[in-house]
């Protein structure tokens, strides 16, 4: 065992589970496809919050207040995610990783499709924003159990020396989800404004229904974790996993939350907030800003795949440190480039900003999974990631409020991004020294 690997509180002494590279690749790919579809559903809401909901569901407010209300609704989903982490963490650690992932994909697909059918404020009045908030809550609860389960399943099927690459595949689901959601919105933005507002924006949401069928088909083929099967045989499951996480591994939970902060909160500052900032404050076209996220997503995919391999050599914690520090250094230049209003420079800035941020995000799954023992892993990973999300999900709202307070100057938002980056760097530094080792053998 290396000096960076140790036995965590609550780790079971059971027999070794058998893992194979072939099985790991199949499961990781299935986790990636399902996660991509889930993030597609989730990211649609962020784009719509910046472009649509402020005008169609909060029409009684002035433009600034309507934007704040739309971003607040966006943040509600993050506040609900820890609830999903508790529910699906219990299910995943007690009943199995696979059934939890099947339920989450159905929940988020149905909630997203129903948003596409939701009447506007002009049609049903105050019930419209209330129903929008309710559906966002359902999305948040479902996503609260999704990512942690996908990462846990991918890691637990992988040989220990290849966990970085397989844990990175579910991470690729995020930029692919961005490509799908932003691409869908880019297409409907080609419609005349009246058509877009009337029905065009609904099409990407309604697409969630057929995608749900694909996701369920894929998730049903995912095999259960060999580590969980071994725990079932040895009867080593935690009775109340979340409680054990808070009692036995609270320090690990805090470190995991810190290491995940940039990948969650920073990402939404450079996508959801940046779209609104470029379109509403700087006066650039909505299509330009959305297309900028498309280019950035392609860069993000490449960064994630490369950094997953790098993490196997250097360790995911060290990669997280470098990703956090580099993001902090480039935060001001990225915003300065966007403020030039030059279309090419703006797109490059968004690609650079999200690209460096993705260095830490790429290895977040591998690092978080190895901070918790198998019997607490689903709950620990889900709670850490989603508590970080709950704390940072309102950042687009906070950033928009900051702009109003300083007459549109971006420097407070840049300092906010730098703070997130440094917190993540600290989490990576500590996390690398707290990684645990599972009892597994290759085959």
Automatic annotation (TrEMBL):
This is MFS transporter. CDD domains: MFS_ShiA_like. SUPFAM superfamilies: MFS general substrate transporter (SSF103473). PROSITE patterns: MFS, SUGAR_TRANSPORT_2. It is a multi-pass membrane protein. Keywords: Cell membrane, Membrane, Transmembrane, Transmembrane helix, Transport. It is found in: Cell membrane. Pfam families: MFS_1 (PF07690). Its main location: membrane. Residues 27-436 form the Major facilitator superfamily (MFS) profile domain. The chain crosses the membrane at residues 39-58, 64-88, 100-124, 130-155, 176-193, 199-218, 253-276, 288-307, 319-338, 344-369, 381-403, 409-430. It comes from the Bacteria.
């Amino acid at each position: 065992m290396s000096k960076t690997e140790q036995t965590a509180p609550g780790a079971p002494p059971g027999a070794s589970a058998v893992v194979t590279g072939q099985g790991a690749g199949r499961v990781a790919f299935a986790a990636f496809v399902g996660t991509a579809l889930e993030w597609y559903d989730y990211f649609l809401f962020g784009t719509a919050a910046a472009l649509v909901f402020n005008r169609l569901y909060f029409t009684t407010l002035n433009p600034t207040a309507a934007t704040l209300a739309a971003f607040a609704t966006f943040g509600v989903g993050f506040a609900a995610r820890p609830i999903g982490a508790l529910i699906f963490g219990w299910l995943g650690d007690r009943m199995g990783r696979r059934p939890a992932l099947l339920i989450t994909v159905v929940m988020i697909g149905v909630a997203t499709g129903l948003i596409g059918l939701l009447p506007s404020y002009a049609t049903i009045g105050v019930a419209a924003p209330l129903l929008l908030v309710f559906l966002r809550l359902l999305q948040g609860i479902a996503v609260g159990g999704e990512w942690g389960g996908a990462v846990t399943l991918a890691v637990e099927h992988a040989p220990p020396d290849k966990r970085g690459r397989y844990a990175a595949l579910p991470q690729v689901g995020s930029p692919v989800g961005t490509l799908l959601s932003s691409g869908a919105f880019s297409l409907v933005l080609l419609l005349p404004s009246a058509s877009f507002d009337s029905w065009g924006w609904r099409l990407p949401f309604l697409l969630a229904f057929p995608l749900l069928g694909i996701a369920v088909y894929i998730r049903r083929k995912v095999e259960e974790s060999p580590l969980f099967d071994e725990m079932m045989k040895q009867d080593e499951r935690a009775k109340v996993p979340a409680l054990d996480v808070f009692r036995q591994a609270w320090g690990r939970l805090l470190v995991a939350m810190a290491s995940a902060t940039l990948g969650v909160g920073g990402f939404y500052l450079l996508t959801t907030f940046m779209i609104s900032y470029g379109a509403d404050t700087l006066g650039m076209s909505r299509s330009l800003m959305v297309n900028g996220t498309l280019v950035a997503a392609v860069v993000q995919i490449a960064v994630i795949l490369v950094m997953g391999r790098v993490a196997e050599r250097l360790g995911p914690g060290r990669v997280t440190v470098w990703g956090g520090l580099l993001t902090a250094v480039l935060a001001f230049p990225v915003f300065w480039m966007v403020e030039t209003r030059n279309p090419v420079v703006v797109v490059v800035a968004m690609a650079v900003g999200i690209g460096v941020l993705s260095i830490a995000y790429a290895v977040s799954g591998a690092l978080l999974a190895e901070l918790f023992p198998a019997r607490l892993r689903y709950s620990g990973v889900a709670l850490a990631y989603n508590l970080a999300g709950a704390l940072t999900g309102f950042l687009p709202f906070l950033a928009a409020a900051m702009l109003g307070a300083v007459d549109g100057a971006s420097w407070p938002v840049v300092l906010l991004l730098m703070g997130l980056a440094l917190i993540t760097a600290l989490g990576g530094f500590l996390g690398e020294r707290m990684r645990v080792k599972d009892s597994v053998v290759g085959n």
